[in-house]
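Ticket #4471: structure output looks truncated?

Reporter: J.K.
Steps to reproduce: submitted the chain below (151 residues) through the standard prediction queue, then opened the result file.
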Amino acid sequence: MLKGIDQRLSAEVVHALMLMGHGDSLVVCDVNHPAATIAAQTTYGSLIDMAGCDIPAATSAILSLMPLDTFIPAPVARMQVVGEPDGIVPIFERMQTVIDKAEGRTVQMRSLERFAFYAAAKEAFCIIRTSDSGPYGCFILTKGVIDLPPI
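Returned output as attached by the reporter:
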C-alpha cells in the first residue's frame, strides 16, 4: 500500500492510469459487459478487474487519481437503455453524483446506443470490469490534464 492511494486501486489499475495521456479514455463496466472480448482490442490489450467493487465505488477510486477532460463537452459516456434511448436506470443517477463530486462541478454525460458504445469502447485505452451486476453499468471516462508544478 501507498499513502493517499485508495486501497481499491490495484497496482495494475494505477499502472494503466499512469500510462494514459490526456484525451485517452477508459471503460468502467459491470459483469454483463463483453469486457474481455472488447479489452483485447484496446490499447492496453487485456482486461483489468476491480473485483469486489461496484461501479460507483470503482469510479470514485479511479477519479481520486484521474481528472476528467475539460476540453470536451461531455467527458463521460454511458450506454443507452436498449429500445428506450431516453430511459433512465438508477446507476445513471448514482454515477452522475459520483462524477460531479469527484470533479467539484457538474459534468455532462452523453449517451450512446449499445453498438455505438461497443465501438467506442474498442477505441478506449483500457477496460476495467467491476463486480457490479448492472444493468447498463457501462461508462466511458475521458482523461483530462493535470496541472503539475515544474520539476
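Triage note (M.O.): checked the attachment and the full C-alpha cell line is present. The first helix runs from residue 11 to 19.
Status: closed, working as intended.
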